[in-house]
Design a protein that fits this description.
This protein has about 450 residues and is an alpha/beta fold. Helices cover about 35% and strands about 15% of the residues. It has 15 helices and 15 strands. The strands form three sheets. The protein has a seven-stranded mixed sheet with strand order 4-10-9-8-7-5-6, sandwiched between helices. The longest helix is centred in the first third of the chain and has 18 residues. Bound molecules: pyridoxal-5'-phosphate. Pyridoxal-5'-phosphate (PLP) binds next to helix 5.
Amino acid sequence: MSLDHPAKPPVAPNDLRAFWMPFTANRQFKQNPRMLVAAQDMHYTTADGRQVLDGTAGLWCCNAGHCRPKIVEAIQRSAAELDYAPAFQMGHPMAFELANRLVEMAPDGFNHVFFTNSGSESVDTALKIALAYHRARGDGARTRLIGREKGYHGVGFGGISVGGLVNNRRVFGTLLNGTDHLPHTYLPEANRWSKGQPEHGANLADELERMVALHGADTIAAVIVEPVAGSAGVILPPKGYLEKLRAITKKYGILLIFDEVITGFGRLGAPFAADYFGVMPDLMTTAKGLTSGTVPMGAVFATSEVHDTFMTGPEHMIELFHGYTYSGSPIACAAGLATQELYKEEGLFARAAEIAPYWEEALHSLKGTRHVIDIRNMGLIGAIELEPIPGEPTKRAFSAFLKAYEKGILVRTTGDIIAMSPPLIIEKAHVDQLIGTIRDVLEALD
Ligand SMILES: Cc1ncc(COP(=O)(O)O)c(C=O)c1O
């Protein structure tokens, strides 16, 4: 057998062809790349040496800001000390330490965490725990999983099955059996220009009663929702909606899962959305802000009631046949521990709550700006919805994103909505720069 391999195509250092980029218009990007080469605190540095103000905390994840020395040093130390330890049937101290730290800050009753590597994995883990929980209780007919229209729960098969964004679903086959979807709560006519929770739509939670009537409560394992939906363009829960969902799920013994991948770790000015809204689910999925985006890591928070249900049977037996090679890997745990310490030392969740009213006023000052048809906000989240160009949906917002980037700010768009979620270290002057730049961009845009 020849050891000769077929010649690879030549790859120049700046050849962009090999990397198939995720959720990206690859051909458009590669013609005119937007390349980031460094970051510090609130700013990215671009390949051409410009400073760009980060209006999105990377992808809703760098909550502590960029390249914070405490986190950087912890990662460096861990990489030199314990690069990896097997995750199954073996342990290392930092994973236990981080789990303890996380349950201390979680709402009462959440006494256990299961580590993953991403939000998608956290979602699939939580769905599997929900199914296995009912089975462990002898209630194994509960196999249905209910999500919500316009929901985003990552890109695993579980996540896209309960998710409700058509582009993420339609070309991927039949998905999981036995899912259903609550109606979304995006009610632009009724709730336009909402500051915080919108007034209208709590009754949409009653649709769960209809599903119970249709399927039978004893076939439903769990309901999963984002307390605040991010990827669909920032959809806020109407007043009373989450409370109703909690009441109905409790009434029928259905687990409630909050997908807190974007709301966890201070985004709303509280540790979790569960704290912010005062509504306690049975499971919470997290990732992103757990390590401030530095090392991929996620965690599923479980109540004692859920966790303890598994802790039966012979003690030498594995209780849950699930886990990842990198569940609680040392470098991720080091990053997580340093991140949580930094949040605490700098009081960043309280800081987010403090600056949120300024953020709200600044955002809503864009009412009346060209193309703007709605503005919504909560905590350090903001959405500016634009009138779509007739026949060319998404194009106007994408053009705004490109112009904004040229003018030194990073925002994100979904559909015709500009979404922002800055690091929690944002200062008022940064808010002014973000909003001022968006105003200039929109006024000049076709
Ligand atoms: C609510 C929610 N769930 C899950 C995910 C998926 O996370 P990841 O991209 O880390 O898999 C995201 C990502 O944006 C999210 O917003």
